Design the sequence.
DNA sequence: GATATTTATATCGTTCACGATGCAAATATA
DNA sequence: TATATTTGCATCGTGAACGATATAAATATC
């Protein structure tokens, strides 16, 4: 048995599992508001800056527009946001929050801390988080360089 | 703008993005063999120990059987494995590799190192990997405690 | 031994991800 | 100003994830 094949040695598997489990931790906090985790990410982006074209949201989340477009359509149908054609560039779709979408920011204000607390443990603490962030950011930057 | 909402502060988003990007890095190495990343994970498990019930594979990958069952069915259809009813317990489905599934182990022997190299960067090195692994394992253990 | 409960897997419906493709608007080039 | 290329978004098909539910076999309880 080649050691390199052992699941215990795989970085990707750990990231994959940790990502799924934290997303599951968000679920009970979001589902009551009819939200999924990727939809919550879209709200985070729009709460920072409202009225963005689809492409800017996609780049921020490092997702393709073919993932985001149907997601935004569902959120529009749910009354959380509006999509209207850009005035200066008719190819763009400008996505903006409805009052309902804005209101969710207050209602979900406890979410980051709740999830944060559920993740802290022996080796992951406020003191060690910056190094973990640096590792993940470096991996993300390394892999998203497309040239 | 509440600081806690900033996407830059979110651990889950980093894990989610890093996981997706590494999975994408596997893609060109696996797609030629007709494999997806989750299917590769199943092979890793079966290469370690052949002829396991569905439940053992699911637990190892921390996935539900309703995710794994259709995945295994697709792999069976692709000729990579067999599913047969357990002899001692007729509820179980024992999953075992076909010769083709076993042969892939040699053909994919370069994959772990290739992906590993594509991830190493300034802050993620052979020296810092153990600490990163420890962080991720702690998060995974914390969140998968179901009691 | 009959009934209830648990366990192992499967099926169904919805929502991502993402490669491939299509299309119209904007821009570049001839 | 025609034509070509690029850009922004949408559509389609496939394969995960996962909550909810179903079903049959094994086990526990009466």
Sequence:
């Amino acid at each position: 048995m080649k050691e390199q094949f052992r699941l215990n040695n795989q970085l990707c598997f750990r990231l994959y599992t940790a990502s799924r489990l934290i997303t599951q931790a968000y679920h009970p906090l979001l589902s009551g508001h009819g939200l999924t985790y990727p939809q919550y990410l879209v709200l985070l982006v729009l709460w920072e800056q409202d009225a963005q074209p689809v492409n800017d949201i996609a780049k921020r989340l490092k997702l393709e527009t073919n993932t985001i477009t149907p997601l935004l359509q569902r959120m529009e149908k749910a009354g959380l946001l509006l999509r209207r054609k850009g005035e200066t560039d008719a190819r763009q779709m400008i996505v903006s929050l409805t009052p309902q979408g804005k209101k969710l920011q207050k209602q979900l204000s406890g979410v980051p801390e709740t999830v944060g607390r559920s993740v802290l443990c022996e080796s992951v603490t406020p003191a060690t988080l910056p190094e973990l962030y640096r590792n993940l950011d470096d991996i993300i930057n390394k892999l998203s360089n497309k040239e």
Observations:
- Chain A has one domain: 3-115.
- Strands of chain A lie at 52-53, 81-85, 93-97.
- The radius of gyration of chain A is 18 Å.
